[in-house]
Amino acid sequence: MGAMSRFGNNLYTGKVSFPFVGRRRLWFLIAILLVVGSALVPLLRPIQFSIEFTGGSQFTVSGLSAPNQSLAAPAVEKIVADAHTKVTTVGNTAVRVQTDQMTSDQTQEVRQSLADAYKVEIDEVTSSFIGPSWGADVTRQSLWGLAIFLALTFLILALYFRTWKMSVAAILGLVDVLVITIGIYALAGFEISPAAVIGFLTILAYSLYDTTVVFDKIRENTREDGEASGRTFGESVNLAVNQTLVRSINTTVVAALPVGAILFIGAFWLGAETLSDISLSIFVGIIVAAYSTLFVAAPLYSLLRENEKSVLSRDKKVLIARERAAAAA
Length: 329
Description:
Structural class: alpha+beta
């Protein structure tokens, strides 16, 4: 613990410094590769959308002592040979079966077939139907929610920090988080469901919180720029990121641990698959958000500000004073 405290103190005072700003070209190149790679994932493995987005039929078989997923697909295909099925376990006593859209007659026959396969009364097999228009409404509302979130984020950050350039850097960082998270999510073969969308919005909020804390420290440091601080603008930004590095790591670990427990223990080990979509999106997003704030948003903000006349003038004075001090020594 003492070593960690000394490490954090050295980061805060500048004795130890990671070049977040100095090597930003490398970080930007890595970010571009990750975003492009994530955007290309659907070409290799098409994104799967849940029944809430695509529409279809859903059956739930209840009252089971030992849910067996392998019985569901053959029971459905016995009635509709080319049906695409997705089977999940709900708790310890039920199985959920999602299929393509079916007619009323097919729905009744599938209910009976599932009841026979699982040896339960037909009353234990419930069915529901989600039309494509409802799925289109869900998609539209999700996109509207994302657009409103980004617009409000831009406006609030611009008002709070009193510069639109911080808003631009933060929004690009959020887009980076969203694209990479969705790419990893799709690569893992998970369906995008309303729960996953909630997870995506949640990690955007988390990323915004992390970025705001770092940017607040950047604003504090850059107010001291000039000959008095002995730092250029880029050096002040880099110092701020290093000063908040330990906090960012601790917050990420504390946030990721319980979500990771839900994902790996609850979903993968205990079979609570209903938790897998939202927990995976949040778990991946938390990690990507921490990376994006440190390696994308903060260095990008420095890049956007360094060519301003006032910043160039202050940096020039700092460098001249530094050269004079070196010559005098």
